[in-house]
Design brief:
Layout: H1 7-25, H2 32-39, H3 43-47, H4 53-78, H5 83-100, H6 102-117, H7 123-146, H8 155-175, H9 181-194
C-alpha cells in the first residue's frame, strides 16, 4: 500500500528548510536543488509544491500572516477584556512571537533585503498580508470608542502607529542583538493606555 503523504506538512518542511538555506547561503546563492537535497526529496518533487524561490517566500509570508490573523481575530471577538486590553494583548503577543522566532524572522527579512538589492520589492505583499490586522485594530478601536472604553481618536492614525511600532520591533529583533523587547512592549502598552477613556 502506498505511503500517504501529508502535503501541507511537506510544504511547511520545505519552507523551514528553505529559510535555513537562505539564512546560511544567502537568497541569491540558494536554489531549489539545494533545498530539495536538504529536505531529503528530489528536485522534481519540490517543483510539485513551488515553482521557484520567490514562491517559497510568498508562501512563508502568507502562512505566517494567515495564522496570525486567524489567531488574533478569534481572540478579539471571544475575549471579554476591554478593547484596549484586547489590542494590547495582540500587540504584545506578536512581539513575543517575533522574539521567539528570531532565526526565521531574520531569514525572511534577509530575503527581503537581498530581493530589494535585485530590484524587487516585497513591500506590496507585506502590506496586503497585514491589512487584515490593521482592519482588526480599527474595528476594535471603533467599538471601544462606541462603548466608552477608548477616547475619540483617528482610527487610521492609531492603527497605522501600532503597525509601525510592531514592524519596527520585528526588524529590530531580526537585526539588533542589543534590542530591548521589554522596552518596546512598555512603549506600546503606554501608547495604548493613553487612549483609554
Amino acid at each position: 500500500m502506498p505511503k500517504k503523504i501529508d502535503h501541507e506538512a511537506r510544504k511547511e518542511k520545505i519552507l523551514h528548510t528553505a529559510l535555513r538555506v537562505f539564512g546560511r547561503e544567502g537568497y541569491r546563492d540558494s536554489n531549489l536543488s539545494l533545498i530539495a537535497s536538504e529536505c531529503g526529496i528530489s528536485r522534481p518533487t519540490i517543483y510539485q509544491y513551488f515553482r521557484d524561490k520567490e514562491e517559497i517566500y510568498y508562501y512563508a509570508v502568507k502562512l505566517v500572516t494567515g495564522r496570525m490573523f486567524n489567531k488574533y481575530a478569534e481572540y478579539a471577538w471571544s475575549s471579554e477584556e476591554n478593547y484596549i486590553d484586547r489590542i494590547t494583548y495582540i500587540c504584545l503577543d506578536i512581539m513575543q512571537t517575533a522574539s521567539e522566532s528570531e532565526d526565521e524572522l531574520t531569514s525572511l527579512v534577509d530575503v527581503m533585503l537581498q530581493m530589494k538589492k535585485e530590484g524587487r520589492d516585497f513591500n506590496e505583499i507585506i502590506l496586503r498580508r497585514t491589512a487584515k490586522l490593521t482592519i482588526l485594530f480599527k474595528r476594535l478601536l471603533r467599538i471601544g470608542i462606541q462603548e466608552g472604553e477608548i477616547i475619540e481618536c483617528d482610527l487610521n492614525t492609531v492603527a497605522n502607529h501600532l503597525l509601525l511600532m510592531l514592524e519596527s520591533s520585528c526588524f529590530q529583533v531580526a537585526f539588533l542583538d542589543t534590542f530591548d523587547m521589554q522596552l518596546s512592549k512598555e512603549l506600546i502598552t503606554a501608547y495604548l493606555d493613553f487612549h483609554r477613556a
